[in-house]
Specification:
heterodimer; A: 735 residues; mainly alpha; two-stranded antiparallel ribbon; globular; B: 97 residues; elongated
Chain lengths: 735, 97
């Protein structure tokens, strides 16, 4: 590694960069630390499997009956069995697992400080660290190189920072799991691939990270694989993501065919040669967006994310809310040089994002599983981010990505601590009710006051109540969308013959209604979980208690970030500190492309802007008020005694039957064709019967005919010999 | 003269061939083989009249080989007869692989 670095620095000397010689030279160490953690924890897991003791895969887990547990349920507490001691290497794993993340975060902060200090000339260019030539194939030159610029720095800070907190939380949450080191190995590996994704200096390297996080997502969704529902959820996530990855690959092929390079720097230079709004750049962007729709759970590929809740709750927080699913948003911001050239593609991104936001939010209104509510909320918020980056407001999208990482991680970890408490209580009494169903909760406020307060903060933030983080970021997306509806390049584009202006206003209305529904379903979740009478059961009630400090500690930090996150990028009408900090920070990366998209769009006048802000706040407050007025937790009964829903409510509970529609429209035809045509027809019929057995029959037949000549009778041989001689002689004569 | 000799030897040869093909007795089959060899010898001698003595020299070789063959062949037939009390080729079909 050392010689490689020297080679790298030697290559760098040609073009000096202000970050040369600063902490940024240790950039390669940031992803390598989690990889090291993965190796250590993985070895601990393997070593333990060869020794006597608590075995993993969890024998204890499968012994217990889970009757009455629906699909995709988190069974954390179930692993807490009296006879099962902690994993023998739990202590070492607890140090290594979160430890490498702490180190990586410290290093990331040091690099950030160096970047802040290196102001002045040169910082508008990314800092590229080249390690070795990875794929030198003719014209295709791909290096293993990391690119550090303001955008990837933001992502590195979010990934390592939030990741670190979630690792610490996991120490408490996964405490008694038999697969403890395996869990941390996967989690470390995930962080490694995520950092590869955000730091890669070209599309293929980013793709490696993209696939790697998908792999870790699969491994962690199916972490408790001894139950089929969990393993199936993992497979679903993996397969649905492959559809998106196909789009990413096609986009890379198109990029190479038309620009001839896959480096971010090279593509940035080459993009100017592409025709603005031309079919090539539009196709590239749409295929890239297909990849984003898979990874970031947008219509029509969002269906895997709610099922992904089968994994442990900290995994849901880290991978399926805060970091991995936002990779699509990052990809569009990273490819802003392409997207800003394709107004039609951007329009599609905005519309899909807005549609997803309102669609998922409406499903979230009627979910009973606390994690499912948060899952649909995540899908909906990701839709918001795509509305942001799609409308060319890259800063607003990335801003919402960061704040969402804070408050959604807080919500998920809070729900994790609720589930932990519920499981512990049910476990003490041997109850097999559903510990994630909100109908079985209620009144948890008095048992878990810390979680209660922190989750309310996050709820107000996601609803968009000032001055919490969600208010600023969501408002910026809505404001940018409104401003770009007139005069911007997107507004002038046409889709299906309808001008972009109309589409953008439709998207704005969708986004506003999604905001209303977000406030309603989040308040509903809080009311049913923490307020009203307790429905857990008499015996269980005395065991309900707050989670240990190792779990509430990260929650407190995340709550602080949720409150203060808005200060990252304050709008002009609220000069409470540095105005537009994030916008200024990301200016070198996306500034030019943002301006290109805005085109001739006039900024919204201050009066109108304040009006829009007031509207958003009124909508959020109205949502909360509706939920409080309409929903009475006292009327709820536990899940086992709940009546069936009727009418449209039933449609919502069943998630618009999308899974069933996909099953009928895609899965069953594919399975049918595979079974009848490919298996019975081609495999059994043609290959097995005709080719394999047919050639055997042919050899047998030839042998049988040949064997008839060998009768053993001398007379027959003599006859054949004579006839043969006559035939040969006859042939000579005739010729 | 040559034509008559060749015709005669051809007749002899065909008789030998048919004897080999049709007769069942091993001794007779063996004798028919000898008949075919001698038909060939006759051909050699007839051609030697026209084209020099090489044909006659060849006849001696053929006769030598035929004598050796006769010894070996008769030994086989005697061995066969000792093995099973018949020399009828209909009953001898152990050549099958």
């Amino acid at each position: 590694m050392h010689s490689l670095l020297q080679a790298a620095t030697a290559a760098q000397t040609a073009t000096s960069h202000p970050l040369d010689g600063t902490a940024a030279r240790w950039l390669w160490l940031v992803p390598l630390l989690p990889l090291l953690g993965f190796v250590i924890n993985g070895l601990l897991s393997i070593v333990a499997a060869y020794q006597a003791g608590p075995a993993d895969p969890s024998a204890a887990h499968s012994e217990e009956s889970h009757a009455g547990h629906g699909e995709g349920h988190d069974d954390a507490g179930k692993h807490e069995h009296h006879e099962i001691p902690r994993h023998r290497y739990a202590g070492l794993t607890s140090i290594v697992g979160p430890g490498v993340l702490v180190l990586a975060f410290i290093l990331a902060v040091l690099i950030f400080v160096a970047m802040r200090g290196a102001g002045g000339g040169g910082m508008e260019h990314p800092f590229v660290q080249r390690y070795f030539s990875w794929m030198p194939v003719g014209d295709l030159q791909i290096d293993a190189a990391f690119q550090l610029d303001q955008l990837s720095m933001l992502m590195v800070l979010v990934v390592t920072g939030v990741g670190m907190l979630i690792h610490v939380f996991s120490v408490g949450y996964m405490r008694d799991d038999p697969g403890y080191p395996r869990y941390f190995a996967y989690l470390n590996l995930f962080v490694f691939f995520m950092l590869l994704l955000v730091l890669g200096a070209n599309y293929p390297l980013m793709f490696i990270g993209w696939e790697g996080v998908g792999l870790c997502s699969y491994l962690l969704i199916g972490f408790w694989f001894s139950e089929k529902a969990n393993a199936d959820a993992g497979k679903k996530a993996f397969i649905v993501n492959r559809i998106g990855d196909f789009g990413f690959l096609i986009a890379m092929f198109l990029l190479f065919a038309n620009i001839g390079t896959l480096d971010f720097r090279g593509v940035t230079e080459g993009a100017s040669a592409l025709a603005v709004g031309g079919p090539v750049v539009t196709a590239i962007c749409l295929f890239l967006f297909l990849g984003c729709a898979g990874k970031s759970a947008q219509i029509p590929l969002y269906i895997w994310l709610p099922d992904a809740m089968a994994g442990p709750t900290p995994v849901s927080a880290l991978i399926h809310a805060a970091t991995m699913v936002t990779a699509g948003v990052f990809l569009i911001a990273r490819s802003s040089m392409l997207f800003s050239l394709a107004p039609v593609a951007e329009l599609v991104v905005v519309l899909i994002g807005a549609l997803t936001a309102v669609f998922a939010a409406s499903i979230g209104l009627k979910q009973w599983d606390i994690k499912k509510v948060l899952a649909y909320s995540t899908v909906s918020q990701l839709g918001y981010m795509f509305v942001g980056v799609g409308s060319g407001a890259y800063v607003a999208g990335m801003f919402h990505l960061a704040t969402h990482a804070f408050f959604k991680a807080l919500l998920f970890l809070g729900s994790g601590s609720v589930i932990y408490a519920m499981h512990a209580a049910y476990h003490h009494t041997g109850n097999h009710d559903d510990a994630q169903d909100m109908r079985n909760m209620g009144g948890l406020r008095q048992y878990m006051p810390v979680t209660f307060v922190l989750m309310w903060i996050a709820t107000l933030a996601i609803a968009g109540i000032p001055p919490l983080a969600g208010f600023f970021s969501k408002d910026e997306i809505l404001g940018s969308l409104f401003a770009r509806a007139q005069g911007s390049t997107i507004a002038q584009a046409h889709l299906f013959g309808i001008p972009g202006t109309v589409w953008l206003y439709i998207a704005w209305v969708f986004a506003l209604s999604a905001a209303l529904m977000t406030a309603v379903y989040m308040t509903r979740m809080m009311l049913y979980t923490f307020h009203g009478p307790n429905r857990t059961g008499e015996a269980e009630r005395s065991y309900l208690k707050e989670a240990p400090w190792v779990m509430t500690g990260p929650l407190v930090v995340l709550a602080a970030l949720t409150i203060g996150g808005g200060w990252l990028n304050l709008p002009e009408f609220a000069p409470l500190g540095v105005v537009g900090g994030l916008e200024h920070w990301l200016e070198p990366v996306v500034g030019e492309y943002t301006k290109r998209v805005i085109g001739g769009a006039a900024p919204v006048s201050p009066g109108l802007e304040l009006g829009l802000v007031a509207l958003a706040v009124v909508i959020a407050a109205a949502g909360i008020a509706i939920a409080v007025a309409r929903l009475d937790p006292k009327m709820l009964v536990p899940k086992s005694r709940s009546p069936q829903e009727e009418g449209f409510e039933k449609v919502l509970v069943n998630k618009y039957y999308v899974d069933e529609i996909y099953d009928e429209a895609i899965v069953k035809p594919v399975v049918g064709v595979s079974r009848q045509l490919l298996w019975r027809g081609i495999d059994v019929g043609v290959i097995d019967s005709l080719m394999v057995r047919g050639s055997a029959y042919l050899a047998q037949l030839t042998g049988f005919i040949g064997s008839q000549f060998q009768s053993g009778r001398l007379g027959t041989y003599a006859w054949v010999l004579t006839l043969g001689v006559l035939a040969v002689l006859g042939a000579f004569t005739i010729r | 003269m040559l034509a008559e000799a060749l015709f005669f030897s051809a007749v002899l040869f065909v008789i030998g061939v048919f004897g080999v093909l049709i007769r069942r007795n091993a001794i007779i089959v063996f004798m028919c083989v000898e008949l075919m060899l001698n038909a060939v010898n006759l051909t050699f001698v007839a051609f030697a009249q026209e084209y020099g003595a090489a044909g006659q020299v060849f006849v001696f070789f053929v006769m030598t080989v035929a004598a050796a063959e006769a010894a070996v062949g008769l030994a086989i037939i005697i061995g066969l007869f000792r093995h099973r009390p018949t020399v009828d080729l209909k009953n001898i079909n152990v050549l099958k692989g």
